[in-house]
Specification:
The complex is a heterodimer of chains A (488) and B (217). With 488 residues, chain A is α/β, with parallel strands linked by helices. Chain A contains 14 helices and 21 strands. In chain A, helix 7 crosses helix 12. Chain A starts with a strand and ends with a helix. By secondary structure, chain B is of the alpha/beta class. Chain B folds into 2 domains: 80 residues, Methyltransferase, Methionine Synthase (B12-binding Domains), Chain A, domain 1 (Orthogonal Bundle); 127 residues, Rossmann fold. Chain B has 10 helices and 5 strands, in the order H-H-H-H-H-E-H-E-H-E-H-E-H-E-H. In chain B, helix 6 links the parallel strand 1 and strand 2. In chain B, helix 1 runs antiparallel to helix 2 and helix 3 runs antiparallel to helix 4. Chain B is globular and about 55 Å long. The chains are: A alpha/beta (488), B alpha/beta (217). The interface between A and B is medium-sized, with 23 and 21 residues.
Chain lengths: 488, 217
């Protein structure tokens, strides 16, 4: 049974503000381009706009579907909210401790999700975790749309993220005042939080204006009194769009100490990949887009209740697993990869990605299906990631058989089935074992927090051996990208 | 006799080697280049475009077909030049300043060539000035601008303004495309046309050329 929300519009305010307060996200930034903010009108009226006509079919409009970003109304309306609460991956695994007194905190500032962790500096244990959604999400789901927004309305995103993180930390503190806070995030998140100009990141050669480590006092950031006195450090960026979240991930998987080459893939909204070992690491970001998180997929959603997260074939037909065991409402990234992998095996999808026998869609379970356009989105996303890794391998001159392990970070990497990911060609066909490592950004940041005397040399060493490769400028990438759109 | 139906199939199926082989054989037998192009190759690319439109084909197939078309055109080009057959039009194409994305631009470029246009590809990160200079030196009929980033879209507008400044604006048609670009934006900056994908860009260029010919006739 779906839950309905009754809204009384406030005069002079568009409905999207109220809906955002409820947690609805606007993946494209609220310009009716993606249809990701669908809501279903159960009672009341929301006039149909031109943008809704473009994003939704006649049938859907007739069923009451509207776009939240364009919704306007004079009277009370009740809505069925299609999106569901996000499942955000935290990390509480143990790391080496150099004991000191008091508390500290680490923050993973993701494009989509946030994790704030309070850490006992004496024992290294996690004293509290708070996950959340990045409030900048309403102004666009990927880093490029955030940059565009910041150029249009400077400062809004900076105060938004500072305020949210301050409030989250204050909520966790409860008398356990942190002495130190470490924040990691990609370069755009870094610049927006630190108040640096993102303009240089909006065009070639995509060089960050101030990629270094930045230090603040909690009070300078306007954070609540409970946090005052804390030294807040935003860790340095790796280069291009690749930020400290990837550097932290390298620490978490131990790439900087590895004799043999290893690979790391962090498949969030901003896909980041790295390949290398103690003698040198190459990293890159790929514009994989939000498909692995259900974005830009017609019935896509995050891994929450009602999402199909696993698809198998039992010999007679598709068997779909639904999170929460309820009726299927949509499909999340791991379900999408499974569905494609199974369909490639059964022949329902050809190697070119085309649905067989002229089918217009692929029925999964209940009313949930994949369209031809959804499969194309997946091909673009997996093509970008696979091509990026292939270019790094060529650039490093590493023979594939020498890669000793492949680490998958992030929520999607944790839940995706590696067999399916290999089948669709998202993961390279290397022999190396695949190891899901969860939220490696949080774990790596906590390692840095808990080793104050070694921190600087560790970061310096990492930055020295890590080289960023700009894929956009690389003709081999463009070639590999198109080749990798095809299913193996 | 070279089996010319195979030429059409080879282009539709993206088989560059087979396409070039049929053309070579046909030339050896004295086939008329324009008959090959208009009878088989352009219809094949039109079929590829149709399949892309109805979601049967995707970027990789489109690219393979464009490559096959290019391979088939290569041995014909010297014959066309020597026989003095004019191209469908001359197109200057490039990704605008600040932007490096060129997969879409390359596709449009190949498809235009396949459609019988002479294409001068300026690459990516092309400044308004470079477009203007190239327009002056080549005498292009059409300038095609591509952008994938919203933030680089204003470069399209600047390029049109730069053309106005040197008095070239009414001598060339400007067409624009790329993921964030819309018809509305094209109208706003005064471009002559917008295409939402590579195959429609060829139809647009043809339409503009026939319009231009009628205007001068």
């Amino acid at each position: 049974m779906a839950e309905y929300v009754l809204l009384h519009p406030e005069p002079g305010k568009i409905l999207s503000d109220q809906l955002f307060a409820l947690g609805i996200e606007f993946p494209c930034g609220g310009c009716s381009a993606c249809g990701g903010c669908r809501v279903r009108l159960m009672s009341g009226t929301i006039p149909i706009t031109e943008g809704m006509r473009e994003a939704l079919s006649e049938e859907e409009l007739g069923e009451g579907w509207r776009l939240a970003c364009q919704a306007e109304t004079d009277g009370p309306v009740s809505l069925d909210i299609e999106q569901w609460s996000a499942s955000i991956l935290t990390d509480e695994s143990r790391v080496a401790v150099e004991p000191s007194e008091g508390y500290g905190a680490v923050i993973d500032l993701g494009t989509t999700t946030l994790v704030v962790e309070l850490v006992d500096l004496a024992t290294g244990s996690v004293a509290g975790v708070l996950p959340g959604l990045n409030p900048q999400g309403r102004h666009g789901s990927d880093v490029m749309s955030r940059i565009e927004f910041d150029l249009r309305e400077p400062g809004v995103l900076t105060s938004l993220i500072r305020r949210t993180l301050g409030a989250m930390l204050a909520e966790l503190v409860r008398g356990r005042k942190p002495r130190e806070v470490l924040i990691c995030g990609n370069t755009v998140m870094h610049h927006l939080f630190c108040g640096e100009s993102v303009e240089p990141l909006s065009h070639v050669p995509f060089r960050p204006s101030a990629p270094g480590e930045r230090r603040f006092l909690a009070e300078e950031l306007g954070w609540p009194e409970e946090t005052h006195g804390a030294a807040v450090t935003f860790l340095p960026c790796a280069g291009g769009f690749v930020g400290s979240d990837l550097l932290a991930g390298l620490i978490a998987c131990g790439m900087h100490q590895s004799e043999t080459p290893m690979a790391l893939m962090d498949l969030g909204t901003n896909g980041e990949i790295a390949l290398g070992g103690r003698n040198g690491i190459l990293c890159a970001s790929t514009a994989a887009g939000p498909a692995f998180e259900g974005g830009r997929i017609r019935m896509g959603m995050r891994a929450g209740d009602g999402a199909i997260d696993r698809v198998e074939h039992d010999g007679s037909g598709l068997v779909c697993h639904v999170i929460g065991g309820s009726a299927p409402r949509g499909i999340c990234g791991s379900g999408l990869v499974d569905a494609a992998a199974v369909s490639l095996e059964t022949g329902a999808i050809g190697a070119s990605g085309r649905l067989s026998n002229g089918a217009k869609s692929l029925s999964l379970a209940g009313a949930v299906s994949l369209s031809q356009a959804d499969i194309r989105e997946l091909q673009l996303a997996k093509g970008a990631v696979a091509a990026g890794m292939e270019v790094l391998r060529q650039e490093a001159g590493t023979e594939a058989p020498r890669v000793s392990s492949l680490h998958l970070a992030g929520a999607f990497g944790n839940y995706v089935r590696t067999g399916s990911a290999r089948r669709i060609g998202l993961l390279p066909r290397w022999e190396a074992p695949v190891n899901p490592i969860g939220n490696s950004a949080v774990r790596g940041s906590r390692t840095l927090l808990l080793s104050p005397s070694r921190r600087q040399s560790l970061l310096d060493d990492l930055l020295r051996i890590t080289r960023h490769v700009e894929l956009g400028a690389n003709p081999e990438f463009q070639e590999a990208f198109v080749e990798n759109m095809i299913f193996p | 006799m070279a089996d010319l139906a195979q030429l059409r199939d080879a282009i539709i199926n993206g088989n560059a080697k087979a396409a070039a082989a049929v053309v070579d054989a046909a030339i050896a037998e004295g086939a008329e280049p324009m008959a090959l192009i208009h009878g088989y190759m352009i219809p094949a690319m039109d079929e590829v475009g149709r399949r892309f439109e109805c979601e049967e084909y995707f970027v990789p197939e489109l690219l393979l077909s464009a490559r096959a078309m290019k391979a088939a055109l290569a041995p014909l080009r010297p014959l066309l030049t020597s026989s003095g057959v004019p191209p469908a039009g001359k197109v200057l194409i490039g990704t605008v300043k600040g932007d490096l994305h060129d997969i879409g631009k390359n596709l449009v470029s190949s498809l235009l060539e396949g459609g019988g246009f002479e294409v001068v590809d300026l690459g990516s990160d092309v400044s308004p000035r470079k477009f203007v200079e190239a327009a002056q030196s080549t005498g292009a009929d059409i300038i095609a601008l591509s952008a994938l980033l919203t933030v680089t879209m204003p470069s399209m507008k600047y390029t049109i303004e730069a053309l106005k400044e040197v008095g070239l604006r009414d001598k060339v048609k400007v067409i624009i495309g790329g993921a964030p670009v819309t018809q509305q934006y094209a109208d706003q900056i005064g471009a002559d046309g917008y295409s939402e994908n590579a195959t429609l860009a060829v139809a647009l260029a043809r339409r503009l050329m026939s319009g231009a010919r009628q205007a001068t006739a």
